[in-house]
Design brief:
Blueprint lengths: L2 H5 L17 H10 L3 E4 L7 E7 L2 H12 L5 H12 L8 E4 L4 H7 L3 H12 L9 E3 L11 H7 L4 E3 L9 E9 L3 H12 L4 E9 L1
Parallel strand pairs: 2-7, 3-6, 6-7
Antiparallel strand pairs: 1-2, 4-5
Length: 208
């Protein structure tokens, strides 16, 4: 145990009790009951498949709302541990990318929730990671406040690829927190494919 773990001991992201990991044994069993690990393959999207672990409901919804909007940034360890323990990602991808948020929103929130998870997964699974490829140029209204049609138009043309050589002919894993209509990840995948990405799979914690 290092000095930081003595000062800030690990706590289970679900029950918030001190634990040896970010998901205690008791809560791990409870989560298995609601785990919906599923992969959907698409032919009509710019991304190739979407994998999610939970339905966006009950306790998972509550944790995601706290993580995203109520400054519970430390929950990225909890969500990352669940992904690492349940998803076989190594050797399937060349690089992990997070769905970006606008710099103004990141300044207000203090973090990009998808970026924290993507970086933690890459570190623990010895995978390449970059947040210097995909950027959001327009500070749009939150997707959660819009209907399906509005969501599609809200994300059109708002992402840009920089350093395209990083993704040229690469198999990309794109990380986001929640999948509702898929408009955001589809627009991200579109611009990534236009800039040389070979394949793009999306991974989210939950699907609404």
């Amino acid at each position: 145990m290092n000095i930081l773990e003595i000062i800030y001991p690990k706590t289970c992201g679900m029950c918030e009790d001190i634990s040896k990991s970010y998901l205690c044994g008791k809560c791990k069993l409870k989560l298995k009951e609601v785990l919906k690990l599923n992969t959907v393959v698409y032919k009509n999207k710019y991304f190739d498949s979407h994998t999610y672990l939970f339905k966006y409901e009950e306790k998972i919804r509550d944790k995601l709302l706290k993580y995203k909007f109520r400054d519970y940034s430390y929950l990225y360890k909890f969500f990352s541990e669940i992904i690492i323990n349940n998803c076989n990602l190594q050797n399937n991808y060349d690089i992990i990318l997070p769905v970006p948020i606008h710099k103004k929103r990141k300044q207000m929130r203090g973090y990009n929730q998808s970026e924290l998870i993507a970086k933690e997964i890459a570190k623990n699974m010895n995978m390449e990671y970059s947040n210097r490829v995909l950027i959001k140029m327009v500070n749009t209204v939150p997707q959660s406040s819009l209907n399906q049609t509005q969501r599609m138009s809200n994300v059109m043309g708002i992402y840009k690829v920089i350093n395209s050589q990083i993704i040229d002919q690469k198999r990309i894993l794109l990380i986001d927190d929640i999948f509702t209509t898929g408009s955001t990840v589809n627009e991200c995948a579109k611009i990534l494919k236009q800039n040389g990405a070979k394949t793009i799979d999306v991974l989210t914690i939950a699907k609404d």
